[in-house]
Predict the structure of Hydrolase.
Amino acid sequence: MTHAIVPADFHPPRGLGNRHLQTLLPRLLPRRRLARDTEIINLPDGDFVELAWVRPAPTAPEAPLFVLFHGLEGSFDAPYARELLGAAADLGWRAVLMHFRGCGQAPNRLPRAYHSGDTADAYWVLGQLGQRYPQALKVAAGVSLGANMLLKLVAEQGGDGLDLAGAIAINAPLDLAASADVLNRGMARVYQRHLLASLKRKVALKMAKGPLPISLSPHQLKELDTFWAYDNEVTAPLHGFASASDYYRRASAGPLLGEIELPTLILHAADDPFMPGDLFEHLPAPSAAVRVEIARHGGHVGYIERRGARLASWLARRVTRQLDDWARVPEGLGQTPASARG
C-alpha cells in the first residue's frame, strides 16, 4: 500500500453490507428520472457512437462538462449512469454519456463492437467536445469497463494529451484476466451469464444479417459460457487480438497506473465480486497524480448508503464532491484528488 491508496469513507447501512446485495441494490431502488437529447457522432471508420445529453442543459458555453463512459453492456438507463449524470447536472455541469458502439438505441454499422481497451472512440469524442466547448472545464468518468478504458486512455495520452481537468474511474477491472477468472466462480457466474447473454444476443443478430469475421456458427456462439471463451472466439478476432490472453494483456489498464499524469481519482470496493480482493497488491504503485480510495464494502458499483430516512448513492455524493473541488480551484487544474475535501 502506498500513500496514494487510502480507505474510502463509504459505510453501508446495517444489514446491507453484503457485496451481492450492494451490487443489486441500485437496480431495486426507484430510478432517477432524467430527460435526454440524443446525438449521433460519426467515427472516422464509418461507424458511429450515440451521445445522451442530460436535458435541460446549461445555456452558457463555458459551463463545465462531465463526460461519462458506461460499463459492459451499460447505457444511459443504468442506475449508476442516471445518478452520476443527474448529480453533475444538479451542480450546473453539462452532462453527457457516450454509448459504446451498439449500446445506444440502434445497433452499430460495422461487424466490430467495443472492448475494455478501446480508447480510440473516446479519444475522438473528447476531441470533438473540446472543439465544441473550448472554454469549458472538462472531467471524464468511467464505470467498470468504461473505467478501465478511461485509465488506459489517460495513461496513453500523458498529462496534456487530453482536454481534461481530471478523470474518475469507478470499479475498474484493471486486470482483465483476473476478472474473467473471478467471474467464472461461485455466485459471480450469475453476473457472467447475464452479461454474456446480452453480448451474444447482439452478435447473433449481426450473424443473421450477414457473415462476420469469426469462426463460429450460431450454435457454437450460444454454447460460449465463460468470458474466456467469448473473448477468445468473438472479442479477440473482431478487434485484432490473437486470443483472449492477448486481449486481456494488451487492454488491461492496471500495468499503466504508474504512468498516469492527469489528476485521477480511482474509487474501488475491496469486496467487488467482479474482481479479486487483492487486486491492487498485484499492480504497480499508482503515480503521484492518482488517488485510490478503497471501501471495505460496496460491491460492484453499488455503494448504497443511508441518508436520513432513505437509501441513496454514496457514489454520486463522492463524485459530486470531486467535481465541485475541481470546479472551485481553476488556478489548480493540476491539483490531485488527494487534496479533495473529506
Q: What stands out?
A: Residues 188-209 form the longest helix (22 residues). Residues 338-342 have pLDDT under 50 and may be disordered.
